[in-house]
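=== Structure Prediction Worksheet ===
Name of assembly: unnamed complex
Input type: mixed (protein and possibly other molecules)
Chain count: two
Listed entries:
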Amino acid sequence: MEKRKIIVYIATSVDGYIARKDGSVDWLDRPRAKGSHGIAGFFRSIDTILWGRKTYDFAMSMGGLSMFGSKVRNYIFTHRPPAQDAPDAEFVREPIDAVVKRLRAAPGKDIWMMGGAGIIASFLDAGAIDEFIINVVPVLIGEGIPLVEPSRRDVDLKLVATRPYPDGLVQLHYAVRPPAAVKKRPKPSSSVAE
Amino acid sequence: MEKRKIIVYIATSVDGYIARKDGSVDWLDRPRAKGSHGIAGFFRSIDTILWGRKTYDFAMSMGGLSMFGSKVRNYIFTHRPPAQDAPDAEFVREPIDAVVKRLRAAPGKDIWMMGGAGIIASFLDAGAIDEFIINVVPVLIGEGIPLVEPSRRDVDLKLVATRPYPDGLVQLHYAVRPPAAVKKRPKPSSSVAE
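=== Predicted Assembly ===
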């Protein structure tokens, strides 16, 4: 049995932001290449979606999770779970390591890490991201929320594929090099100004 | 005669940074594909380099501008020019519009905008960048100096070419849509928290 992969599938601007500072993604709303950049194929390859709390709340405000169908399991990572679970989502307060171990032990398809930046960072630091599929939209938005919440962190990636689309979007597909390659850099000496 | 283009040719990490917070680019120092991603061809297409002051100072600390040869004209944009010009560089304190008008009126090859983030932002806001050639290095560095100094700014780009290299670097080549497409977004209403 192949290992279930945890994959960040996400859109960014050319300047590397996943949303404006206020969370809005109006800049994603543009004419698209036929086939929407292969999202249907990706969607068929997963059966589980992992959400950070803010991204989940944003999706709820945009009409809920039903757009992802009833066959997908949704897990929302939060330190402040509501009193009861939503019908189509499970709130998770366990450590990432434990949840990932449980998910990988169960049979199933790949797992979509939806983001945002905070949960991607936490998963990356736990060595729990296998791949990134980054859809680079041909626009600069100037400022916003970065792909990964900033922190001193070096992660080596391996380019798996590059797919340009007629509408100017480029899909960059990377595999994360094994956890041993995830290095936390030491704090610089105090003489280095930041 | 073709218009001389002003081209940002630069390397970024996958998370969109051109350098670490302290300016260091140690993460660029990795085994490279043969031919160094076509830099020689690009270098033959230009005869002028534009520098922001900090990037120029950094280059000087790394051994000076002589690595770019004696045939290239270097302009350094700064509000604090030194008492006299360096032998291989001219310090510019004029407004960007005036300098760009003068450069474009003179015959010559294309012009390399070296960066950093501040001068790229100023040129972009002046509608003076024609193209970006972004060499995306397959690594996440977590935090650093972004490609363009953050500001509320939308710029539409047109994908010109995508070139993946065997070492995992991907070169993304974009043209900036005409200056009319450069929009400063209005300030949000005061009810929007940032």
